[in-house]
């Protein structure tokens, strides 16, 4: 049997595997990949055994889906994916504890600080431009700062 024969039911199963694999990339959830593997196995079995009845193909897919999902669950139980930084997409939370530079003098409790490549409104004790301060929290997009202890 040549590769040209990958059409019909075998091609459909392999196409389904490809679609499920792409869906896993677009909708992450580490679940569709196992079903995609089951579809690929069924596609290969259907290619190797072209007379395999449709009911047997569906049965193979069902059995392999259960097997691959159970293997996947076991894998993720034994080797859990490490949690990333919970503040990854929370720029304000990531600023807490950072030492920043006063950009616009803090006068009567209000001014601006330079945070990375950006500028944030700030509240805190009066401080001249260029003074280094520490961010203690962020409220409603305003960095609340404190003076650094003398060194």
UniProtKB/TrEMBL annotation:
Membrane found in the keyword field: yes
Q: Which UniProt keywords apply?
A: Membrane, Transmembrane, Transmembrane helix
Q: Which organism is it from?
A: Sphingomonas longa
Pfam families for this protein: NfeD
Lineage, highest ranks first: Bacteria, Pseudomonadati, Pseudomonadota, Alphaproteobacteria, Sphingomonadales
Q: Where in the cell is it found?
A: Membrane
Name-wise, this protein is: NfeD family protein
Q: Which residues form a coiled coil?
A: none
Q: What is the membrane topology listed in the Swiss-Prot or TrEMBL record?
A: Multi-pass membrane protein
InterPro entries per the UniProt record, alphabetical: Membrane_assoc_protease (IPR052165), NA-bd_OB-fold (IPR012340), NfeD-like_C (IPR002810)
User: In terms of one coarse class, where is the protein primarily found?
Assistant: membrane
Q: Which residues form the signal peptide?
A: none
Question: What range(s) does the NfeD-like C-terminal domain occupy?
Answer: 93-146
């Amino acid at each position: 049997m040549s590769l040209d024969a990958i059409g019909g039911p075998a091609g459909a199963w392999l196409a389904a595997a490809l679609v499920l694999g792409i869906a896993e990339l677009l909708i992450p959830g580490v679940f569709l990949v196992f079903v995609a593997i089951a579809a690929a196995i069924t596609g290969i079995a259907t290619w190797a055994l072209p007379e395999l009845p449709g009911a047997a193909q569906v049965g193979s897919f069902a059995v392999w889906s259960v097997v691959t999902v159970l293997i996947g669950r076991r894998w993720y139980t034994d080797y859990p994916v490490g949690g990333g930084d919970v503040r990854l997409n929370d720029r304000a939370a990531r600023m807490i504890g950072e030492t920043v530079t006063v950009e616009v003098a803090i006068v009567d409790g209000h001014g601006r600080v330079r945070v990375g490549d950006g500028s944030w409104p700030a509240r805190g004790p009066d401080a001249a431009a260029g003074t280094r301060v520490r961010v203690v929290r962020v409220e409603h997009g305003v960095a609340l700062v404190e003076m650094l202890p003398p060194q």
